Structure formats: C-alpha cells, structure tokens
Amino acid sequence: MNLELKTRIDKAREILAAQESLLVAFSGGVDSSLLLVLAREVLGNKVAAGTVESLLLPSFEKQHAVIFTKKRGIPHHIIGAHEMNAPDFTENSKNRCYICKGLHMRALADLAQKHGLARVAHGANTDDYSDYRPGLKAARELAILAPLAEAGLDKNAVREASKALGLETWDKPSMACLASRIPYGSLITPEKLAAVEKAEDFLRNQGFIQFRVRHHGDTARIEICENDFANLLSNALRHAIVRHLEGLGFSYVSLDLAGYKTGNLNKGIV
Asked: What's the pLDDT band for 238 if we cut at 50, 70, 90?
C-alpha cells in the first residue's frame, strides 16, 4: 500500500474511531466490505452490519454478505424496507434512487436504534459523486456517514486497499441494484426484477464478469466489456443465451455495441 493510500485509509480509520458505535449498511460489495472491516478494526464489538433484504439485491450478494460477516464473527442483521410497496418507487421516476435509499436508510437507522448503535454508515466512495446518484442526497439528509468518501477514497483506491488487507472482495465486479436495469418511466415489478436477475445469473455462470442485462420491455439489452464480445458472439454460446433469455419472457435479445458502462441509463440526466 503506497503512502498516499495509507494516509487515506488512516483518515477513514480516524473518522470511524470518532464514532461511539456504528451500524454499517452492508451489501457484501467491495466498498461496504472494506468499510465494515475498517470499522470492526477500530470499534471492535461496537460495530454491526445491516443488510436490507430486497428484490433489488441479487440473492447471491446476500449470500456473500452472510458468509463474509460469519467468517469474521461480526453481528449481521437482515431487515426489509418494503420499497416494492411504495408506488412512488415502483413508478420509476428519475428520483427512484432517492426514494429507495431513503426507505433503506431509515430502516437501517431504526435497526441501529433498536440495537443501541449510535450512527449508520454506508460505503459511498468519491467516484459515486461523479454520476447521477440521488440516493446520496437521501443519505446526507438522514445524516448517514460516508467515511470512505470523506477520506478521499475512489473505487480504485478501495480495491487496492482491500487487496492489501487481504479481503476476498477486492476484485468483485461493480454491482448496482437490479432496478438500475429498468429504464426510468417503466414500471418496476417483481417479474421484471426476477427476469433480470435470472438473465444475469446465466451470463455469470458462462464466465462473464462485468456486465448488465437491461430490461426494455420485450427486449433484453446485454452490456458486456468489449473484450468479451467475441466470446459472447460465438455460435454455441450466443444461441444458448438467446434460448435462455427467451425462456425468461424476452422476445428479442440484443448486444449493446458500445459495451458495458456503469450508469448507462442515466444518459441525458443533469
């Protein structure tokens, strides 16, 4: 770990050490895993993890979160926020992330209070502030801590620090909630979320690492890294993908020639 990164990690530790006790919003991803480990390191048994069980979180991510905390003996609470019962969320406006994040963070704040934990923190990094992320506004309004971002850590720094600390999550692909696969204005339903999750599970099982399956009604639009194009387009695999996704209810299966881009459905939003 180079000196600059060490300084920033030490800054994150200082921020965490200043807390009386903490509940870490834990998805099992790269950022929240590093945050949880750092918090545990400096606060000991005054730290717990909280995961919101939701149709928006792929089931394998929840499983990874459970394994990660169990391995380290960290108390882990799983709760629901019931965002699918909120019409202002399922209507899928451009404010969707703000509404969802607010529901999730309020549920975690209630959980923290129930267990006598003083604050809630989430794993936002500085890169998150470069895209359209209205959920960050909801987190700020609810006084949710963001120690990694406050310490100046971007995604690459989070990965580098995680690797240096021996965390198995250091090279996990970036993961966003499944609602991010559904274009704004298109109703979010359990059926659409399930179709996206199953489609992405299939691609993951074929060896693809970083990708998205966007849900455009009867069309599935696959985004993968450009260096994976040749593999996906090989005849046997291409036909297998088409068959599987048609079986999930899609009439058409397309490949986005621009390749995978995080936040791709945010184009045109200021």
From this structure: very high
Query: Could you tell me which residues are beta bridge partners of residue 214?
Result: 221
In this structure, are residues 175 and 58 in contact, taking their beta carbons and an 8 Å threshold? yes
Report how far residue 136's alpha carbon sits from residue 248's, in angstroms, rounded to the nearest whole number. 33
Q: How far apart are CA 11 and CA 17, in angstroms?
A: 10
pTM score over 0.85: yes
* pLDDT tens digit sequence for 97-113: 999 999 999 999 999 99
**From CA 144, how far away is CA 180, in angstroms rounded?**
22
> What is the CATH topology of the domain spanning 3-164?
Rossmann fold (3.40.50)
Residues 6+ apart with CB under 8 A from 237: 206, 231
Asked if residue 232 lies in contact with residue 255, where contact means CB atoms within 8 angstroms, the answer is yes
Cite the beta strand spans of the chain per DSSP E. Answer: 22-25, 47-53, 76-80, 119-121, 211-216, 219-224, 252-255
How far is Cα 211 from Cα 194, in angstroms, rounded to an integer? 17
Q: SS3 for 90?
A: helix
- Show me where the domains of the chain are located: 3-164, 178-266
Tell me the pLDDT tens digit for each residue of 21-48.
999 999 999 999 999 999 999 999 999 9
Per the DSSP assignment, residues forming a β-bridge with 213 are 222
Domain made up of 178-266: CATH architecture: 2-Layer Sandwich (3.30)
Judged by DSSP in three states, 235 sits in: helix
pLDDT at 91: 97
Per-residue pLDDT tens over the stretch 218-237: 999 999 999 999 999 999 99
